[in-house]
Specification:
Blueprint lengths: L13 H39 L9 H6 L1 H14 L2 E7 L2 E7 L10 E7 L8 E9 L2 E4 L10 E8 L2 E8 L5
Antiparallel strand pairs: 1-2, 2-5, 3-4, 3-6, 4-5, 6-7
Length: 173
Amino acid sequence: MTATLPVKPEDMTPEQRELYNKQRGRIVPWVIVAFYLVFILPLIGFTVIAFRNMPSEVTQSAYEKGLNYNITLSEQAAQDALGWKSIAAFDKGELRLVLNDVDGAAIDGAAVKAWFVHPADKKLDRQLDLHPVGPGTYAGTPDLAEKAGYSVHITAAAREREYQTVMLMGGQE
């Protein structure tokens, strides 16, 4: 067996050199095409995904809310200093709220409102006034259109003070 030594381009005949150059240069365009495809195809795919799936959370007046953030923090501090506690439950289509002051005494005579905020469709949001059903206990039955993970924003006003809380529902039960 004889080993063939690599032939240098200078030692080739013109026909061999032409064949060598043709074979050597044939892969270069494919490397360039593959390079661009590796970067362009995912970019196109992510662009299509971005346009088909619009963001689900949009904050209206985000700039103004950002400017008022310190006010929001001071309101939260005032509510924390108030010391009121609540227990909210949604069972068998009824929302029930138990409201107590810092000493654990029931808070009677409060004006209690609840807003059921649908996670995806603003047209399905509902508002409900809760009525007293016992000492510090308020209840109401909302007319919810469908099972959904509503967030329930509850506001209670009594003794010239206001208390707010939020409850998340895992669907209508």
